[in-house]
Structures are given as C-alpha cells and as structure tokens.
Design brief:
The complex is a heterodimer of chains A (269) and B (175).
Chain A (H helix, E strand, L loop, with lengths): L2 H19 L3 H39 L1 H36 L7 E12 L6 E4 L12 E3 L4 E8 L4 E5 L6 E6 L5 E5 L7 E3 L12 E4 L11 E9 L2 E6 L8 E7 L2 H10 L1
Antiparallel strand pairs in A: 1-2, 1-12, 2-5, 3-4, 3-12, 4-5, 6-7, 6-9, 7-8, 8-11, 9-10, 10-11
Chain B lengths: L1 H34 L7 H4 L3 H12 L6 H15 L5 H20 L4 H27 L6 H28 L3
Classes of the chains: A alpha+beta (269), B mainly alpha (175).
Chain lengths: 269, 175
Amino acid sequence: MQRFAFVLLIGSAFALMLLGRFDNVAVERVRLGIVDAFTPIMDVVSRPVSAVNAVVRDIREVVDLRTELARVKEENERLLQWQTVARRLEAENSGFRSLLTAKTETSSFLIAARVVADAGGPFVRTVLLNAGRRDGVSKGQAVVNADGMVGRVAEVGERSTRILLLSDLNSRVPVVNERSGQRGVLAGDNSEWPLLVFLPNQAQVQPGDPIVTSGHGGLLPPGLPIGIVASIGEGGVRVQPLVNWHRLEFVRVVRYDLPRLESGANGER
Amino acid sequence: MVNADASDSIGDRLAQVARNGAPGLLALLFVLLTLAPYNFPGSAQLMPPLALMAVFHWGVYRPDLLPAPLAFVLGLLQDILSGGPLGMWAAMFFLVLVVMTYQRRFFLGKKFVVEWLGFALVTPVVFFAIWLIGSFYVGAFVDPGALVVQAVVTAAFYPVMSWLMSAVRRLVGGI
C-alpha cells in the first residue's frame, strides 16, 4: 500500500466525518443518490430476512393462540361498544355539519411502503423505506403503522425514504395530551421511550395519559395516536410509544394537505 | 477446434473473474445483511457489522482479493445506507484491512483460536473508535453500554462467519 494512497483515504474519511457533522447540500445529494440506487437491492436482500421473521412470528403466534383469542374477544366486545358510540357521534356530527354548511377540513391519504433497512447503531434511529418522491412522499410527512405514529420523513430520494423514528435524538414532534389538552413537544433521545418536554405545567400530567399529534406547525395532521405517558420522574416525562420498534415492517406515509391551503381554495370557488 | 479452444479459455477467464470477485461480493452482501430489518428486540442496536469480519479475514488470508480501497468503499456504503456518521466505517474497514495485511504473517498457519483471539483484540479497539466518532457526530458522549454488548456479539459471531469465508476461500483457491 502506497503511503500517498493511505494518507489520501484516511484524510478523506476524516473530511467526510467533518462534512457529515455539518449538513452539506452537495454531500446530502450524493448520499441520497447512492441510497436511491441501493434501495431496490436492499429490498431484495431484506425479503428472505422478512420471510424468516414471518415464520418466527407465526410460531410465536401459534404458541400464544389461546391467550390471544381471549384478548381479541374481549377487545372485540369493547370495540363493538365503541362502534355504537362512533355511529351515534357520526350521525350527530353530520347533523351539525349540515347545519353549519361546513366543508371537510383536510384531505390526507396514505402511501404504503415496506421497511428495507433498519439502521440502528447507538447514534441514530432511522429506517429506510422502498417508496420515494415518485410515490408522493415528501420531507416532513408523518409515518404511521397500524399501532400509531412511527416517525417522520427525514430525507426523500426518487424511490427511497429515510424515516427519522420518534426515538431518534433529533426527532421533535408537537403533541397534545388528549386528556388535559396540554401541549408539549415529544423529543427523542435514542432510547425507546421519548421524552415529553416544554410542558407548561408538569403537575397536570398523569401516567396513562394518551399523547397524540397536535398538528401545530401544519406538517402533521392533528390527532395521530403516538403513545401513553409511561413514567414521570426526575428525568422528565417519558412516553411509551404505541408502536413496537421491533415489528416495523409495513408502514404508511401520511400525505397531508394543509387545511389553510384547502380552505383558501374553497374560498376562491 | 480453434473456436472451441477460444470459448474454453473465455469460460476459464470468467470463472477466474468470478472467483477473484467472490470476496468483495461477499463483503458487500455482508454490508447489506447487517442493515436488513431483523424483527427481534434490540436487533438494530446489537447487529454485528458483518463486513468487519470479512475485512479481518481477507486481510489475513487473501488481501490481494479485497484491496484496502475496496474496504474503504464498502465502509462508506455502510455509513451512507445506515444514515449514521459518514466516513466512520470507511475509516475502520480500511484501517483494519491495512493493519491485518501487515500482521498477516503472524496468523498464517496458526490454529483458528489464534485468528479468533486476534479478532477479539481488534474488535474493542474498533468499537472504542466508533464510540468516539459517533459521540463527536451526535455532539455528546453516548451511553457506551449498547456498543459494549455489540462488540461482544461481534467477537462471538466471528467463528461462524470465518468458517463461511474459509469455505469460499477454498473455492477461490490459494491459501
């Protein structure tokens, strides 16, 4: 190995570390291009892995079948009650709406995608999806699965998307305590349970309080379920997300159009 | 006759190319497999960097088939796809390969335990560097606990991967 090549490569590695530390548009673009090129390959490589995961999950489910059945039966009973409530509220709501001649406020639709890479490590909490700009994904959009909110879109390529999970150190999501109506910010710290910060009054928070997105800032739709308050202590208020971080396979990107723009368009009509 | 000879030599040459490319392709596959989504608790934090084992192994046995610049590129790819600090694994893979290329005489012809011990000594050094670089990237010293566990898992995984790569090496031919 020639000394010159050695010094060159080590030097460029350290230069990259510095460049990556401070967001650089050119570096970011090259990076996105490479991620884009490799996402289809990651898609193929991750498929057998997903197949093995599915088999493991099936076995586990068969083992838990009886308890699961009991749980689902109970849940079904509870949900049937809710269904009655929801029907009544929907009828009531549409009645009110017709009285007010109000338009439906927002439109949002979902873009389904598969997780093709799960890059943990101690420094970042991100996953890579096999959908991108051509599917309608754009930066800042919320990502959910059947359980609740997963994170938001951090980077978008043509056919790949990097999701910043709620647990990542850089994740900040405006939320509201559904019970008390208090607003706050959900801040990740690379642990599994993010922190609830900027609360006006911590005394009003109780364990078990449901936390949902507040919709402030306009990028996220309000009311997306996130989690419940798990613990309140010296270290702050911790929220247990509804999402199971170890079972992220299929997710949906929420394409949400600002209510402001929508109502503006309606006003012009 | 002449044609048959020519096609034969082309076939030979293709086989040679395939054999020479095998270590690099295997290491690339290791990079991708390291980042695949495994659905068990802590998988993303504990998954050992498989390509590190490839770099160590080929550095000892066939550094001619996995040149240091290629190790650098593989590391960079891992950095880019993982979304973590850029240049981190690039520097690590590259340095480990260079060091192993110089120290390989010590390992050649020894029992496997010696090779494993060598890897078990290199791993903590690598992970300490990773911790420093990552902490610089994040802007604070991160909890080293997960990294310690990951380093142990990495060292424990080595025999399996080394066995796999030895099998490939026998196919490739050479030492």
